[in-house]
Amino acid sequence: LIYKIEINDKNKVNIDMTLTSPNCPVAESLPKQVKDSIMKLEDVSDVNLNLVWEPAWSKDKMSEAAKLELNL
Q1: At residue 62, does pLDDT exceed 90?
Q2: Which of 9, 28, 50, 65 has the fewest CB atoms within 10 Å of its CB?
């Protein structure tokens, strides 16, 4: 669900991510968990997390391993 990660010269991390849908059951918690996890990394000064909806997420974006794990 992560589309882009950029780290600038001041160790600020910019992330574009999406959710499976705007009504995703973890829409309230997942972005915060992602941001908090990245902030725990050594040398990271800040995290800017952007929720994006384009391109829309679909099962086609899943790896074969993920599909097998979820029996899809």
Answers
A1: no
A2: 9
Predicted model pTM: 0.78
The one-letter amino acid at 9: D
Asked whether the predicted pLDDT for residue 37 surpasses 90, the reply is yes
Q: Say if CB 5 and CB 14 are below 8 A apart.
A: yes
- Name 43's Cβ contacts closer than 8 Å, sequence gap at least 6: 11
Classify strands 46-51 and 12-17 as parallel, antiparallel or unpaired: parallel
Q: Kindly state the helix (H) or strand (E) to which residue 66 belongs, with its residue range.
A: helix 64-69
Whole-Å CA distances, 40 to 10, 18, 32, 56, 61? 16, 21, 12, 29, 27
